[in-house]
Specification:
413 residues, alpha/beta, Spore Coat Polysaccharide Biosynthesis Protein SpsA, Chain A, UDP N-Acetylglucosamine Acyltransferase, domain 1, 2 domains, ten-stranded mixed β-sheet, six-stranded mixed β-sheet, 10 helices
């Protein structure tokens, strides 16, 4: 493992997550109150014994770069341990990255200099816990040139991923990127085997194939669309079925690429027994923790007509937040949030530094950093009204308000 390198692709736009990605890359979007999405991939690397990590950025990377510097600059460079951010350098071309393979190709000089024997390529925008050391061990044991992390998904979901077919030795015999009709698993007509966007390459194979792909004019320079379908005919390409770190059986892996998927993954965390266990001390998820006081809940002036109580139920509440006579129910409350008297926040996600005015009602909403909600307003109760205000409303009715969202004062009664 000491000669292996982890390469995290973190340059995606994440347009389906707007307005949350208007000012930041998708891997930098907050998750679960205390974390950023990329923290899960980085924590998996660290917990798996991988301590040489390169993060490839591109789109609106300032927030991501700042977070990595704050949270992940503790490894010892003298021991050849590091988490380095690589911005686009146009070292080999004057264009920005054309695909996932091109992103790696344009950094091939830096990667070669690490002297890695195997290169683990990861996505920085998925939520899961995985021991990569078991994947790397399987890769070496089978002698594969490439190993692909995979898991079963429904046929409908499979249309959004790379889908593979394998033989009895778990060797990949077919790979199609986002097929219209995914190949079902034998004996399971409603399930297919999807790629997780996790690849282990023998380093020399990776370099050779990236250089070949760069010369192909009609290539989109993407691992799933171009390289992997070609490689299965030339090399041993192995599948590695993913097992969840906590259960060992049912795999928890979420692609939070849409607002609805992002919302549902966050709401998973407030259940009594969530599949994704953030409290597992044997597999900690690291992040930047600001120096803030503990959360505070004040006022308990109950009366039947006009209760003024500060409390949270079935919720995650981060440091520095004050529920000052306001309530949070089945919600995730970020750091330094203030919910003022007689207000209720239900089934919602509030990022850091949000202020909720008095007598406000918020339901099924995602509110970005620093937004100030005026007193007496309602959000999430009238979809058409929310759209008229300029808020983003998903098909399932989730309301998303970006950092620059201007919220008008409520009209007088």
């Amino acid at each position: 493992m000491r000669r292996d390198l982890a390469l995290i692709l973190a340059g995606g736009k994440g347009t389906r997550l707007e307005p949350l990605t208007r000012d930041r890359a998708k891997p930098a979007v907050p998750f679960g109150g205390s974390y950023r999405i990329i923290d899960f991939t980085l924590s998996n690397c660290l917990n798996s014994g991988l301590r040489r990590i390169l993060v490839l950025t591109q789109y609106k990377a300032a927030s991501l770069d700042r977070h990595v510097n704050q949270a992940w600059r503790f490894l010892c460079r003298e021991l050849d341990e590091y988490v380095d951010v690589l911005p686009p350098q146009q070292r080999l071309d004057e264009q920005w990255y054309q695909g996932t393979a091109d992103a790696v190709y344009q950094n091939i000089y830096t990667i070669e200099k690490t002297g890695a024997e195997n290169v683990l390529i990861l996505s920085g925008d998925h939520i899961y816990k995985m021991d990569y050391s078991l994947l790397m061990e399987n890769h070496r044991k089978t002698g594969a040139a490439v190993t692909i992390g995979c898991l079963p998904v429904s046929i409908e979901e499979g249309r959004q991923f790379g889908v593979m077919s394998i033989d009895s030795d778990q060797r990949v015999v077919d790979f199609q990127e986002k097929p219209v009709n995914p190949q079902a698993l034998p004996g399971s007509p409603n399930t297919c085997l999807a790629s997780m966007g996790i690849y282990v390459f023998q380093a020399d194979v990776l370099y050779e194939e990236l250089c070949k792909d760069a010369t192909i004019r009609d290539s989109s320079h993407d691992f799933g669309k171009d390289l992997l379908p070609r490689l299965i005919n030339e090399y041993r390409v192995q599948a590695y079925p993913f097992q969840d770190k906590n259960t060992g059986e049912k795999s928890y892996w979420r692609d939070v690429g849409t607002l609805d998927a992002y919302y549902e993954a966050n709401m998973d965390l407030v259940s009594v027994d969530p599949q994704l266990n953030l409290y597992d001390q044997s597999w900690p998820i690291r992040s930047y923790q600001p120096l803030l006081p503990p959360p505070k809940f004040v006022f308990a002036q109950e009366n039947f007509e006009n209760p003024r109580v500060g409390y949270a139920l079935d919720s995650l509440v981060c440091s520095g937040s004050i529920l000052s006579g306001g309530k949070a129910i089945r919600s995730i409350i970020g750091a330094n949030v203030k919910i003022n008297s007689w207000s209720t926040v239900e089934d919602s996600i509030l990022f850091d530094n949000v202020t909720v005015g008095r007598r406000t009602r918020i339901r099924r909403a995602i509110i970005d950093k620093g937004v100030e909600i005026p007193a007496g307003i309602t959000i999430g109760y009238d979809v058409e009204q929310d759209r008229a205000r300029g808020f983003t409303v998903t098909e399932s009715g989730i309301v998303a308000i970006g950092k620059v969202g201007l919220i008008p004062e409520p009209l007088p009664a």
